[in-house]
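User: I'm writing a tutorial on reading structure tokens. Could you give me a worked example: one chain, its sequence, then its tokens, then a sentence or two explaining what the tokens reveal?
Assistant: Sure. Here is the example chain.
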Amino acid sequence: NLLFLAVVYEDPHAADAALYPARCRHLRPRWRELPGRLLDVGFWGRWWVLGARLRDCDVNEEEFGGLPARLRRLSPHHLRSHRNESQFLEKFRPVTLTEEEIRRAEREAAAPARAEGARLGGNAGDP
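And here are its predicted structure tokens:
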């Protein structure tokens, strides 16, 4: 890391490796080999090579080949619509029931229990 510039390169050995090729100064990589070992250059928080390689890395172009031309392209408004956002946020809102809705739900839950008790020949409340 060089203040505003960062360089990522491939090192053939870990820094704490005790192997002879890692310790011998004659076998270490030469400076002229650095461009071949360079992985990426970062400047002001942006990685240039990785940014280009990872752009749309999860998109399989062949998968969309059979679609009509108008469906092959997405614009940002297709991804973030107000309706989608409001539906997403709706699931986090608390559910409030009125007293009448609670009584109706309790009656509906009790009805199958009474029917099961009658089928077995006893009261649903009996142990």
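What the tokens reveal: Residues 117 and 126 are 9 Å apart (CA to CA). The chain has a mean pLDDT of 77.
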